[in-house]
UniProtKB/TrEMBL annotation:
Presence of keyword Glycosyltransferase: no
Pfam families: Glyco_transf_4, Glycos_transf_1
The protein's name: Glycosyl transferase family 1 domain-containing protein
InterPro entries listed in its UniProt record: Glyco_trans_1, Glyco_trans_4-like_N
Domain Glycosyltransferase subfamily 4-like N-terminal: 15-180
Entry keyword set: Transferase
Molecular function as annotated in GO: glycosyltransferase activity
Domain annotation Glycosyl transferase family: ranges: 214-357
UniProt source species: Candidatus Roizmanbacteria bacterium RIFCSPHIGHO2_01_FULL_39_8
Gene Ontology biological process terms in this record: lipopolysaccharide biosynthetic process
Length: 386
């Protein structure tokens, strides 16, 4: 009997959480009689996460990532289970764990951009935490039996930072479309609204968003993601504020410290009726936004993969985004790119798109980007590591 552990403490989050939920969903379909998976979940997720297979064994833990408790008690917990292989699915891991493990390193953004809340609240405290984090990830790179990255670009970043000596143990494995987004069981739109051009299903938009008083016109761009500083949404807001065409920008993401900061900026620019937040959308609401937006605008300075741009491509939503290496790797020339440090360039590219209403999207996206294929490759890596 083989025992493999999977760190699923971020199960309920976006980003890494989407990665985890899809990995576990497809992995359960591939389990064999000789392999048992130990799934480590935070106490609050433990009661609500269920698996059909008896070979998926849940373990409740209270140790959060980037904590002292993680270094001691989480390490103790996984040592007690006497695993043959552990998969740490995030940057943070207990450095005292010395048995065989593989790690997924989603990006190197935290090494260069301080994404934590404390980066704007308590710089000294966050600086200390940031230095500890740099040590932890360096140990993870050094001690992992194998490292998974979501793109070749992240592999190159790791090679630049830590050296070519680690190159042979780094495996780029593309991610894909959340299985919950491609679920065919969403309620169907009324027949009168099916097949209408993007942005024309305004009554449904009103019903879904509840933004009735602010949506006199029905043309809109969307941004989907977090509002951390490296996401560069502040520049996007400033660039969009200069566009004269009557339309909206919908910022779709969490309600947090950073969105509150951006809301103040929106009010200062007199854009509260043009730039709107929509927090924590349901799956069917997110699908609606993708299907009806004129385009997705993604101004990020740094990414490891970029789930929203792949999701947008799946729903045939045109993309206007940063000219960073990761996006160029994923989309090639199938998007309109801009310099994310240049608000003028960002504005011009959005206006260029509006003038021509281009329909640029990457066809056959599931042929290249699939969480099911990702899981197959990850499972193969588990077996070869054993």
């Amino acid at each position: 009997m083989v025992k493999i552990g999977i760190d699923a403490r971020l199960y309920s989050h976006t980003g890494v959480g989407t990665y985890l939920r899809n990995l576990l969903f497809y992995l359960e379909k591939k389990v064999t009689n000789t392999v048992f998976f130990y799934i480590y979940l935070l106490d609050e997720n433990y009661p609500t996460v269920h698996f059909k297979s008896s070979q998926f064994i849940k373990r409740a833990v209270s140790s959060r990532w980037h904590s002292f408790s993680e270094q001691i008690w989480f390490a103790k917990k996984i040592y007690e289970d006497r695993l043959d292989l552990m998969h740490f699915t995030y940057f943070s891991y207990p450095v005292l764990y010395r048995k065989k493990f593989i790690a997924t390193i989603h990006d190197v953004t935290p090494l260069f951009y301080k994404t934590g809340r404390a980066s704007m609240k308590n710089p000294l405290t966050y600086e200390i935490k940031h230095q500890v984090f740099k040590f932890v990830i360096a140990e993870q790179v050094k001690n992992a039996h194998a490292i998974i990255t979501p793109t070749k670009a992240v592999k190159k970043d790791l090679e630049k930072i830590y050296g070519q000596n680690y190159s042979k143990k780094i495996y780029p494995i593309y991610e894909g479309i959340d299985y919950e987004l491609i679920n065919p069981n969403f309620p169907a739109l009324p027949a009168s609204q099916q097949g209408e051009p993007a942005g024309r299903q305004f009554p449904v938009f009103k019903q879904i968003t509840g933004l009735k008083s602010k949506m006199e016109d029905d043309s809109f761009f969307i941004y989907v993601g977090n509002f951390y500083p490296h996401k560069n949404v502040e520049r996007l807001i400033k660039a969009f504020a200069r566009i004269k065409e009557r339309m909206k920008l919908i910022l779709i993401g969490p309600a947090d410290f950073f969105s509150t900061y951006l809301l103040r900026l929106i009010n200062e620019l007199g854009q509260k009726d043009r730039i709107l937040f929509f927090h924590n959308p349901k799956r069917e609401e997110l699908v609606y936004f993708y299907k009806n937006a004129l385009a997705l605008v993604h101004p990020s300075l740094s990414e490891g993969f970029g789930l929203p741009i792949i999701e947008a491509s799946y729903f045939k939503t045109p993309i206007i985004a940063s000219d960073i290496d990761v996006f160029k790797e994923l989309l090639k020339d199938k998007y309109i790119s801009f310099n994310p440090l240049d608000e003028d360039d960002m504005q011009k590219k959005m206006e260029f798109f509006l003038e021509r209403k281009l329909k640029i999207h990457s066809a056959h996206i599931l042929d290249k980007f699939s969480f099911e294929k990702m899981t197959e490759e990850t499972f193969s890596l588990y077996k070869s590591s054993l």
